[in-house]
Amino acid sequence: MAKRIAAIVLIYLAASVAWGVLGATIFARTYQADRALRGQVAASWGSAQTQAAPTAVVERTVVREVETTENGRTVVRAVPETVRDPLPLEQSRVTAGFDLEHRQKGLLWYATYTIDYRGRYRFRNTAAGDSVQFALHFPSKDAVYDDLVFTVDGRPVPTANENGLLVGRARIPAGDTAELAVGYRSQGLGEWRYDFGGEVAQVRDFELRMTTDFERIDFPASTLSPTEKRETKDGWALTWRYTNLLSGQAVGMTMPEKLQPGPLAARISLFAPVSLLFFFLLIFILTTVRGIELHPMNYFFLAAAFFAFHLLLAYLVDHVSVHLAFAIASATSVALVVSYLRLAICPRFAMREAALAQVVYLVLFSYAFFFQGFTGLAVTIGSVLTLFFVMQTTGRVRWATLIAPRPPAPLPPAPAAMTRVA
């Protein structure tokens, strides 16, 4: 008995090492490819965007006296210089609508989105001049902007792209206010932010309304939570409203991710030794209590059937959906175990006890990884139920008698001597 248990433990340890190698390989394949694939998605669709509040400045020319040395003499010359006086932003009314669309590359899904951005900003000309330059910071240099709007007091103004800024100029008399309206449709990846500008900025009369077509919402680190939330038919309507805010944080939205096939297959593979431990324990208890001889080689083939599940899952998720890959791998592994134990023990044991144990400890335990946050609870419940079943099954077993070394079988009697009759 002791040698049999030692052999089973060695088989279990060898299988655990194999699963560790498989899980590490999947993680390496996933994240090494991610570096290149993420760049491809960003190049074709767009990267994460950070939209900054627009700015307005008054450009005026002043003449400054500058001392220079010419031919050994100090000369004072009048040099014209352009001065830019920033104008205060008195009011912001911003809307941002998001449409989410996931794209798969390799073993990962990428959360890409389309944004419809509109903003109305009121500036007051507190400077001496009237030549105002309005500038909108593009949220990403490699993005595409469609349906572009740039008007001042309802009138379109000529614009130019100057070092990543969309710049337009208009005449605003000193002391007057002007409303800048901007808008566009664009595409991004992963998350979106609205930055007030500067490390610590003062924001007056600000309102941002955001709508989503997805239900799972999350906010990036170091961003402000919405002041109002309302669930809609398709997603959420979120509002950030401030009268006079002083903050170094931004407003943002993190796009919800799909279940990632690569990391999911890797985590399931690394968890496989726990599933096999429960399965081996239950099979060992049942066969021992019922007096069924099961050789360590039988356990080796059972471990191989378990490993086939994870190997199939790891390489199927490249080609089919993760749910279909999981179903194919589960059916294959269960069929291997049942068809094998049908020959090794009996059809009834294979179809009932072994199949049920594999469905619980391999299929259901692995499927718990599809529900983030519930894997530990599922394993705990399974452990408690397994303990209850084993205790009830073996409660009347006399283990000292059951696992005691068996006496050697008696030798057959020697054949009787034959007497030769004359």
Average pLDDT:
85
Number of helices: 7
In N-to-C order, the SSE pattern is HEEEEEEEEEEEEEEEEHHHHHH
What share of the residues lie within helices? 25-40%
Notes on the structure:
By secondary structure, the chain is an alpha+beta fold. It contains 7 helices and 16 strands. It has helices at residues 2-44, 261-289, 296-316, 322-344, 347-367, 375-394, 399-402; strands spanning 49-52, 55-70, 73-86, 89-105, 108-124, 131-137, 146-152, 155-156, 159-162, 165-171, 177-189, 191-195, 201-212, 228-231, 236-247, 251-254. An 8-stranded mixed sheet has the order 8-7-11-5-4-13-15-14. A 5-stranded antiparallel sheet has the order 3-2-6-10-9, with no helix packed on it. A 3-stranded mixed sheet has the order 1-12-16, with no helix packed on it. α2 packs antiparallel against α3 (296-316), α3 (296-316) runs antiparallel to α4 (322-344) and α5 packs antiparallel against α6. The protein is elongated.
